[in-house]
Amino acid sequence: MGIFLSGQKVCFADLKHPCYKMAYFQELSSRVSFQEARLACESEAGALLSLENEAEQKLIENMLQNLTKPGTGISDGDFWIGLWRNGEGQTSGACPDLYQWSDGSSSQYRNWYTDEPSCGSEKCVVMYHQPTANPGLGGPYLYQWNDDRCNMKHNYICKYEP
Question: How would you class 89 by CB atoms within 10 Å of its CB: exposed for 0-12, middle for 13-18, buried for 19 or more?
Answer without folding.
Answer: exposed
